[in-house]
Design brief:
Blueprint (H helix, E strand, L loop, with lengths): L6 E5 L3 H12 L3 E6 L10 H12 L14 E5 L12 E4 L5 H14 L5 E4 L6 H4 L5 H6 E6 L8 E6 L5 H14 L3 E4 L8 H18 L4 H7 L12 H7 L4 H11 L6 H4 L4 H8 L12 E4 L6 E5 L6 E3 L6 H9 L1 H6 L3 H19 L8 H12 L5 H8 L1 H10 L6 H6 L5 E4 L2 E5 L5 E3 L9 H6 L5 E2 L3 E5 L4 E6 L8 H16 L4 E4 L12 H9 L3 H19 L5 E3 L3 E4 L1 H7 L3 E5 L2 E4 L13 H11 L8 H12 L3 E2 L2 H6 L7 E4 L5 H13 L9 E2 L4 H16 L5 H15 L9 E2 H16 L2 H13 L6
Parallel strand pairs: 1-2, 1-4, 2-3, 4-5, 5-6, 7-8, 17-18, 18-19, 19-21, 20-22, 21-24
Antiparallel strand pairs: 6-7, 9-10, 10-11, 12-13, 13-14, 15-16, 16-17, 22-23, 25-26
Helix pairs in contact: 1-2, 7-15, 7-16, 8-15, 15-17, 21-23, 22-32, 23-31, 25-26, 26-30, 29-30, 30-31
Length: about 775
Amino acid sequence: MSAPINKVCVIGAGVMGAGIAAHVANAGVDVVLLDIVPEGADNRNAITEGAIGKLLKADPAPLMHKRNAKRITPGNIEDHMDLLGDCDWIVEAVIERLDIKQDLYRKIDAHRKPGSVVSSNTSTIPLANLTEGMSEDFCRDFLITHFFNPPRYMRLLELVGGSETRADALEDIRNFCDIKLGKGVVDCKDTPGFIGNRIGIYWLQCAVVDAIENGVSVEVADAVIARPMGIPKTGVFGLLDLIGLDLMPHILDSMAETLAEGDVFHAVYQKPEVLEKMIADGYTGRKGKGGFYRLNKDGGKRVKESVDLSTGAYATSEKPDLSSVKASKKNGLRALVEHDDQGGKYAWRVLSKTLTYAASLVPEIADDICAVDEAMRLGYNWKFGPFELIDQLGAAWFAAKLKAEGVEVPKLLQTAGERPFYRVQGGQRQYLTTDGTYADIQRPDGVVMLSDIKLNSEPVASNKSASLWDIGDGVLCLEFHGKMNSLDFKVLAMIRDAVERIPRDGHKALVIYNEGSNFSVGANIGLLLIFAKIWMWFLIAMIIRKGQDSYKALKFAPFPVVGAPSGMALGGGCEVLLHCDAVQAHAETYTGLVEVGVGIVPGWGGCKEMLIRWFGTNKRAGGPMPPVIKAFETISTATVAKSAEEAKSLLFFGENTNITMNRDRLLADAKARALELVRGYTPPEPVEISLPGPTAKTAMDMAVDGFAKTGKATPHDVVVSGVLAEVLSGGATDVTETLTEDDLLALEREGFMKLAKHPDSIKRVQAMLKTGRPLRN
């Protein structure tokens, strides 16, 4: 019988176990964290209490808000096993030794409540071995939940059941990990390394061994096995630095011990001498003195260096100029692997082995290709899974090239023949099954993807930067789709179109959502630079006015507007959300008003809305000064919330904010939220506030001057902060007067234009466009 999971216990407070506990706490669920009693320690909970302390200091943060640590109860396995009695799920995350795990399982079985689920985080020991000799009830409640590190950020959760595992236990954990923890749950078979590590470790090892044997530098390797293949820019050697070089020998040994003798992994299983020497010398990656890359700080400069794989010596790292990479930008993946330069040849050797291996493993490791592709996308951050990459090459072309090189073509690739592994038929995405037929890709209940809607419909309205889509039940979706979802005239025009169209055409509500990596990085500052160079100040003033008018129309529209962000929502992207009736945010939303970094102030209502929010909250002290100071502190430091939960604390998101943990469920949740607001909806009333004027500006100027004297603020920081203080204090006003929202917008426009004309602000914009980093001038 299905049962809710209200409390969890994690046993093992290492990096992974503590990270799992933190993420359970992020989900709003109480969690017990247990470990051994350290020998000779006065504090018997020293390990778990220490682990919680590290969670609070770690960067990137395992906790979505520091207060979530209060949901974690520390303890030890000698004194506190009775705490298991009210836990619904017990996660074992201890050392990968069968004897230690089974001894722990016997203790767990003696203290857990009937029907509680027990799982192991292992990826190396078969489930059948873990449960050998355990009670029948334990075996029915036992499964494997393999998290990827760090648990908060890596979306993959590999789920494995045994022959005796009850189906409802698997379903309970699948649902909890999907909905509450936000995981992409992939069902795997009980095979070594499951899916992600089975393919991923082989891929990494192929890349390292081939580079060493064929004299390919780490820079060349990481240039081709990265963005040209839809793989993160760390590439292979950068990823190994991140993982830790010292972990690789243990992982390789484990794979070699558990994989069958005939598995092709054994052909690349070796421990290169250069790698062993690096580890011995302390070059274990980013956690050590460096790895395949290091920063040399001699002479006061930070010089990036890379290791020579043949000698082990370091030299200044040089970005390679590869014709194959350039060809791939124009003509895709096949142009990369067909190219005759060193990069192209290396790319083919590594990619062909990896894709051939993946194709040979279905259905051994998973029932279908969708699970394999999903695991590699979520577990290794590949943009495309192995079978999606084969489709880019062409399955028939790939098979013919393998055959020409004398490589055995996997059966599944033979089954595909001239056909792709994925296709769209009748507006439905389909995948090729192992028996050679196509089956529909099924979304879980509660998952709605805009990409699926697009297969069956045309946009209601569209331009180069934004589109409106009908997502059913009277709800329209506004999608940004310009470069990095930046905002420009065309986006503003689509906002105005939506505001007019929805009541006119009988629609009910608007959701602002897209499936890009980031909701929006803000306004297109390239336009600011272009207009400033030709002194077209009136065009800059016009786009600021249009932005303010568009966002104001959004705020006071006669229908509910729900913002549904994920990833970065910065500057103008944050301001969009500030003007929505409600926000349904993905948990991993990073938002803030960052305009000061490019030498300007928020100009599309950001200053106005932050003032209104701080004046309207009970989180601040009384009087007109505290809310002004709070808004100033947040905006002047370009503070960015590192989670949706943190955004609520900073008032970027208001009390009308709900959080969705699973990215794939965001659109459905936002649509449901919009429909909830439709009944009896009335637009918000305009707000008037009283601001302290010059008195507040003087106080803020003095604070910034203090930062400047200690070197914490640059000369232009002082200039920008002074203008921001003028806007937030209300200009030439005092507390006896009231200012309307339009008055506040006028102050924003005036402040923005003053800074837009300043040469040091122009320099900041230029630097941001060129380097992606703020200039500290």
